[in-house]
C-alpha cells in the first residue's frame, strides 16, 4: 500500500514541476544569426543548439571531443535539415586550445551574434591542467573568461549581440578566496559558479552602451550526464526523474535569453525559469567582481592589448 501512495506522491511532484518549469515562448526565427554553444554535444547545450538550429541559426558547437562533437552536429543537421551546424574543437581546460578556437572562428566567421557559455564540469577538482590551474575551475570559469574576452571585439562589431553564461543556484555557497588550490568537488563547483555570475555582472558593466548584453542563468536541476562524474550517479533513479527537469526543459532559460525580444535591453541579469532570479549577496558585490576580474586577467595570461 505504501508503494501506491509513494507513486502517487511522485506523480504529483512531477506534475507540479512540469507546470512550474519556465518555458521559452518566443517564436522568433534565428536565420542569419551566428551562435556558439560551448559543450553543445550533450545535455542542456545539445538541446539549446538543436532548438537554435531548428529556428535557422548557424550554430557552432565548441566541444572538446571530436567524435562526440561531430556526432552531435550530424544529429542536429539530420533532425533540423539545417546544414549550418558544425563542430569546432574547443577544450576549455587548455588556454592554447581556446586561443586556437578563437583564431579559427574569426578566420571562418565575420560575426558572432550569440555566445552561450554552457560547458561545465564537476568531479575533476584535484587535477591540474597544462596551464597549472585546478581543472574544474578552468573548465567552468577561467576558460570561459578567456574565451569571452577574446571574442568580445567581434561581439562588439556584431552588436546587438548577446553573451549568455550558464551558472548555478549553488553560486550562493561559493567564495573566491582560494581558487587555485584543491578543495572538495562541491566547493570547487560552487566557487566556479560564483565566479561565473560575478564575471557576467562585471562584463555587463564594462560593456554597457556597446550593444552587447550579458546575462547569466540557473537552468534548474536537470537530469543530464553532468552527474556521471560524481557519487550522485548512483542516485539517477526514479527520484531524479521525478524531481529534475529533462534537458529540453533545462535549455529553456538559455533559449529565452538567446531568442526573446524581451531580452534586447536586458543586461547584467540573472535568470531562472525564464524570469529574473534572485542573486546571492556575494554575486551582487561589485568590489568582489572587480577583484576577481583583475585576478582572472593574470591567471589566464591576458596580454595588455587584449584587456577590455
Ligand atoms: N544539470 C544540472 O542540474 C545543472 C544545474 C546547474 C547548472 N548546470 C550547468 O549547466 C551546464 C551544462 O551542463 P549539463 O547539465 O548539460 O551537463 P553535461 O550534459 O555533462 O554537459 C556538459 C558539457 O560540457 C562539456 N565539457 C566538459 N569539459 C569540457 C572541456 N574541458 N572543454 C569543453 N567542453 C567541456 C561536456 O563535454 P563532454 O561530453 O566531452 O564531457 C558537455 O558537452 C554546466 O555549466 C553546468 O554547470 C547544470
Automatic annotation (TrEMBL):
Keywords from the named record = Oxidoreductase, Signal
Under the heading InterPro entries, the entry gives: NAD(P)-bd_dom_sf (IPR036291), SDR_fam (IPR002347)
CDD domains hit by this protein: retinol-DH_like_SDR_c_like
Q: Which Gene3D superfamilies match?
A: NAD(P)-binding Rossmann-like Domain
Q: MF terms per GO, please?
A: oxidoreductase activity
Please state the span of the N-terminal signal peptide per the UniProt entry. 1-17
Specify the domain of life of the species encoding this protein.
Eukaryota
Protein name (database record)? Retinol dehydrogenase 14
Q: Which organism is it from?
A: Spodoptera frugiperda (Fall armyworm)
Q: What is the lineage of its organism?
A: Eukaryota, Metazoa, Ecdysozoa, Arthropoda, Hexapoda
